[in-house]
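hi! just following up on the protien thing from before. the input was this:
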Amino acid sequence: MQVDKEIDTRGLNCPLPILKAKKALAEIDSGQVLKVVATDPGSVRDFQAFARQTGHELVEQTSSGDEFVHWLRKR
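and the predicted 3d structure came back as:
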């Protein structure tokens, strides 16, 4: 998957990963993809709710060990 911007929110807890993602999404164009790397287990639910509320597409979510990766396509 083509990633247009990536942010690292490791070590940050809710709501900081969402707030940083919101800021990063404002800096990219519609249709581009933002990759967010997080360590907060709650970020899985948070990004699902964020996508529903904002209309951005949650393309994929994965986890490996204590890291959670979220891909959002800006609408």
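The beta strands are 5-9, 33-38, 57-64, 67-73.
The longest helix spans residues 43-54.
cheers
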